[in-house]
Amino acid sequence: MVDQATERTTIAASPDECYAAVIDFERYPEWASDIKMARILSRDDDGRPVDVEFRAAAMGRSTTLTLRYFYGSNPRRLAWRLQRGDITRRFDGEYEFLPVASDPGSTEVVYHLAVDLSVPLPGFVKRRAEARLLHTAITDLARYVEGAGG
């Protein structure tokens, strides 16, 4: 069964700053609390990372997954699809970075994730894992971009 979640927040940084932080995959271990390693496996003709392998802490163990990133024509959107995962059958999602009309120095970040684990878990464990993923994707990102790191 696929679990889906969408989270929105406002970050005190421009859409370009948020986007730049999110595509700087090799720096994820510096700010994304559960990411232990990020390695770029391939790039597109513009030099942007396409296939990225991650090692992350998950439910008391280490997991590895490879994501393929899609840049498309919208420079404020980044989507990904799972290519390989040891405990996931699906790990697809996207970020969208929308300028806040009333505050040009801020961005509304929309994060969507669809996950299907290959191992059965009790509902409360799934919800805890989902909350942790959303925290990393939104809260850790905001802290990084708004601080000195982004």
Explain what this protein looks like in three dimensions.
- The protein has 150 residues and is α+β, with helices and mostly antiparallel strands.
- It has one domain (3-146): Alpha-D-Glucose-1,6-Bisphosphate, Chain A, domain 4 (2-Layer Sandwich).
- Helix content is 25%, strand content 50%.
- Strands 1-7-6-5-4-3-2 form a 7-stranded antiparallel β-sheet.
What is the CA–CA distance across the termini?
Answer: 36 Å
Spatial order of the strands forming the largest sheet: 1-7-6-5-4-3-2
Q: What's the total count of β strands?
A: 7
Class computed from helices, strands and strand pairing: alpha+beta
CATH topology: Alpha-D-Glucose-1,6-Bisphosphate, Chain A, domain 4
